[in-house]
């Protein structure tokens, strides 16, 4: 059993940094992201449906993403915010924006769907095929969605730069 | 980029700009984009802007990673370690001074001193026992070097 865990861990280890970045994009809190990643890793080491080596990265990111979304949903439920629409929500903890760069603040201001795909591509360095796997969409959709997200980010950055001048 | 209205041809080609930046295009798509960019100043501008945006994002990400490394650097860890040791030593000195003054400097009856000392030793034994278990667990934990 321990040998199996170690084998799986060796497969997952190169992707942990990318998964941490992905989790941080949801919470903007290193500690909380590390907690979710720890949970995901535990699940990954013990699950019966562990993927093959080439799908390992996309699978781990998918697990981390789902757990992050679950965690955020639970948090909203606890705070009795029934009107919360997850798909259009911007990153939480806007109060802690001071420590973040202009680019990160602009990214956080984007709708969830756009921020999600940008983080997967730009920071977690996923291929279109992997992103399609993680998000459960067609590869062609990834390209057009990503393009819209980039245009939106560029627009948001320009708006912020215009405001600050 | 300030103008959101594309003509139909631009609209169909536009996503390929992102595909080209990510190196995810087929040769045919590459050619299609290349021909379009040569003829369309607006899409060329979008291409340049998005290319610059990618550079900004990467630079920002690298900068953030470096900041995290500085925070987690060995210097910061050393300061933490020294602070813990100072706290531990001061705590021990205070505990010994407390026991000595309780036994030799207070007017409490002997039975109370004995009972209080037994309570203190029991708590210490429990603490040491838990500490021993934790240390044994840490030694045999295969994921102890996992860095998230």
Automatic annotation (TrEMBL), chain A:
GO biological process: DNA-templated transcription initiation
Top-rank taxon, per record: Bacteria
Protein name: RNA polymerase sigma factor
Source organism (scientific name): Pseudidiomarina sediminum
Family: Belongs to the sigma-70 factor family. ECF subfamily.
A GO MF label: sigma factor activity
Domain RNA polymerase sigma-70 region: from-to ranges: 22-77
UniProt KW keywords: Sigma factor, Transcription, Transcription regulation
A Pfam family that the UniProt record links to this protein: Sigma70_r2
Listed SUPFAM superfamilies: Sigma2 domain of RNA polymerase sigma factors (SSF88946), Sigma3 and sigma4 domains of RNA polymerase sigma factors (SSF88659)
Gene3D superfamilies cross-referenced by the UniProt entry: 1.10.1740.10, Winged helix-like DNA-binding domain superfamily/Winged helix DNA-binding domain (1.10.10.10)
Ranges for domain RNA polymerase sigma factor 70 region 4 type: 102-153
Automatic annotation (TrEMBL), chain B:
Name of the protein in question: Putative zinc-finger domain-containing protein
Highest taxon listed in the record's lineage: Bacteria
InterPro entries with a match to the protein in the record: Znf_put (IPR027383)
Keyword annotations of the record: Membrane, Transmembrane, Transmembrane helix
Native organism: Pseudidiomarina sediminum
Domain Putative zinc-finger positions: 10-43
Residue stretches spanning the membrane: 82-104, 110-131
